[in-house]
Amino acid sequence: MNESLDSRQLKAFTVLAETGSFTKTARQLYLTHSAISHSMKALENEIGCRLLAKLGKKTILTEAGEAFLPHARRALAEMSHARTVVAELNKWGSRRLRLAVDSTLGSTLLTPVLLKFYREYSKVHLRVEFLHASDPATLVENNQADLVLAEKPADHAGLAFVTLLADHLQFVVNPGHPLADRPAVTRKELSHYPCLLLRTSAHARKQLDEFLARRGLNLSYVGEMESVDDIKAMVKQFPLMSLLPGWSVAAESNCRALISLSLGRDLFEQSWGVIHSNRRPLNHAESGFVQFCRQQVSQLAAREKYQDGHAG
Questions:
Q1: Do 96-164+272-309 and 165-270 show the same overall fold?
Q2: Is 30 left (phi over 0), alpha (psi -120 to 50) or beta?
């Protein structure tokens, strides 16, 4: 018996088993009677035994044919499923998208992007995880995530970075804070008040610590949180300050729910975006996700510009 079997022969065999007629089988498969006959003879030669027998005008299965039938049906079902899977991959680029996300970008960027993505790619299986203490580069390198939304990592030969947001970190307080109305704030004054820090990657934290050290800033840290929204809620309620990305507090700054402190021109800048492997091109679904991220950032920029123009 040959190792491979023709799927067209298997299909004709299963239909013939149901109809019991070469004529009906030929009609159902849009083939000639002769084509079905030759196909069944070829299949029997490949199997090495008779699969069919005549009983009057009806074609029936031999014992070998009855034993072979369920295997033929399973083989056809598997091939049909394989075609469906490949067709979906060809259309969507992937059947899954594994995202790892810095919580800083959660409500501001991720939520609206996911809504858009699902409308367009509803058949793609999504898995979204927040980074917590995980290193973004390691997740991509170890194939644990397809895309990572996070701060720009240290330069790495195997990674690519698509910049979405670039902004300065700002010291923010609530309007009742003792530093809120100061036209300028000194380093010494900053060190006197408790500071709630946004938890970031080890690489970003090292950069921030080095920046603060160069400026001679010794902050009085009282804790770290991963959620920007939680930090803003705490700062609004208590005499705390925090160091947050400008884009994350733009709305609160415009309505003066939070006050940005003036520290001169030497500010710490960070970039946020999409990290992915540069060892393969982005597939259709991944490219679509990145495009939705860019659209959302553009909408945020337009909204902030509009609010700035109507702040008075």
A1: yes
A2: left
pTM of the entire predicted model: 0.61
pLDDT tens for 15-58 read 999 999 999 999 999 999 999 999 999 999 999 999 999 999 89
Query: Could you tell me the residue ranges of all domains in the chain?
Result: 7-92, 96-164+272-309, 165-270
**111 φ, ψ to 5°?**
-55, -55
CB atoms within 10 A of CB 247: 23
Instruction: Count helices and strands (H / E) in the chain.
Output: 11, 11
Q: Is the pLDDT of residue 94 over 60?
A: no
CATH topology of domain 7-92: Arc Repressor Mutant, subunit A (1.10.10)
153, 273 in Cβ contact below 8 A? no
Categorize the per-residue pLDDT at 85 as very low, low, confident or very high, splitting at 50, 70 and 90.
Answer: low
Please tell me the CATH code under which domain 96-164+272-309 is placed.
3.40.190.10
Report the distance separating Cα 38 and Cα 191, nearest Å: 91
Half-sphere exposure of 312 (CA within 13 A, CB side): 1
Statement: residue 285 has pLDDT above 70: yes
Q: 115 Cβ partners below 8 Å, 6+ apart?
A: none
